[in-house]
Amino acid sequence: MDATPFLDRYRELSSLDEKKNQLIEELLQRVASLEEDFKQEKLDHARETRFNRDIQLHEMELMQQISQIKTIMAREPFVVVLLDGEGSFFKDDLLQLGEEGGRSAARQLYSGLNSYLLKQLPSINSPKIMIKIYLNMKSFGDLCVRAGVISDPTILQDFIRGFNETTSFSEIVDIGSGKNKASDKIQETFQVFLYNCHCHQIFLGCASNSEYARFLDETTKEGDLTGRISLVEGIPFDKELDSAKASYRIARFPDVLRSSKLAPAYMAPWKTSLPSRSMLTPSPSQQPQNVPSLSRTSTNTSTSGICAPLPAPTASKISGSPASDFQTVRSRPNGTTAPKTVERNKYGQRVDRLDFKSIPRDDLNKLKKLKLCNYYFLLGECPNEENCYHDHDRKLSRTDLHILSAIARMTPCRFGLECDDPDCIYGHRCPQSEPGKKTCFRGDTCRFEPVAHGIDTNIVKVTKI
């Protein structure tokens, strides 16, 4: 029997065993690989589980922090009002009341802002209202006097004092007469509050000029911020702000803010109605700072004055005067025959015959507190007697009249040393300067012009009027 077929069959079976063993080895290798992948997957899953848990915890912490931040941001909400005094200031009737007018203006403006917020921005919960008004007090006071709104710049000072005392967050800021302008200060302050999370609205009262127009146009480019801004329109905006104001809310407070610009007048409108006064009688354009602070009533000077200087008081009269020395001043008789004169030095400069240093400061301060009407007591008549807020009934001694005339001289006359009005009671030379000295201790801040310093007080000629 041939063994070859059996050998072939054996070889065939051996080949099958090899294939089987190879298949088993491959299967075992595959299982080992899958087991390794499974282990890695378990590790990854465990890591992701821990990561997700950490993320959830971190998210919870973040949400808690956001809630805390929102609570903090909701605390102490406020709105800020930034007004340029040139474009937004108070009405004449408030300004003329001095300190009491300042208090009333602060209360009325605060009330108007509150009503506006309740109507336009009800989502703001009881915000504080911060009011900042910037102006050059000296320049604005002079403008008010020239426009006939007030008789003396000290009334403006009293108004500002009353305004600043009324609420904790209301103030009128004197920017001075240097290079800093109200627009510069307002723009810098505006930028500080614009991104403040506690500031929910900025009320911007600006003057109509190209500087504010550029500033508002730049702010408009950040469209999401324009809703945080309201423009306060007192005096109507000029064409420079036409394009800008369309992007903002417009707030108006006509009951408290003036709606027209101050127009400087050569003299007060009622001036021509006084037949006993010259048409050339000046009105003040400045008020000196080189004297003790005076109340608005103590320097309520008129555009005319007494015919001749009052004699200097004696020591006995300053310390006290007998009852018989008191008198009530009335209108002067029309039948005056004595010629009126203006005294001048050798240079032709007008000389005020009044020794300011002879007046004790205590007496000066005492008199200014009486709120006297200078028109009435120095001129004998008041052009606005029915509506005058100053005292007309007090009895004054000659010493008091002397001091009151000195107070009147502390306000510069607009015609200066060339003034020819014999009835002018304003100052023609700085009361604190000495002959030959071209300045006083106030330096450049003195309200009198440089030429009004160092005046020769020796009288050499008299001009009869």
Automatic annotation (TrEMBL):
It comes from Penicillium chermesinum. Residues 17-44 form a coiled coil. Residues 367-395, 429-456 form the C3H1-type domain. Keywords: Coiled coil, Metal-binding, Zinc, Zinc-finger. The keyword rRNA-binding does not apply. Residues 277-345 are annotated as: Disordered. The keyword ATP-binding does not apply. One of its GO terms (molecular function) is zinc ion binding. This is C3H1-type domain-containing protein. A zinc finger (C3H1-type) spans 367-395, 429-456. Residues 282-304 have a biased composition (Low complexity). Residues 316-339 have a biased composition (Polar residues).
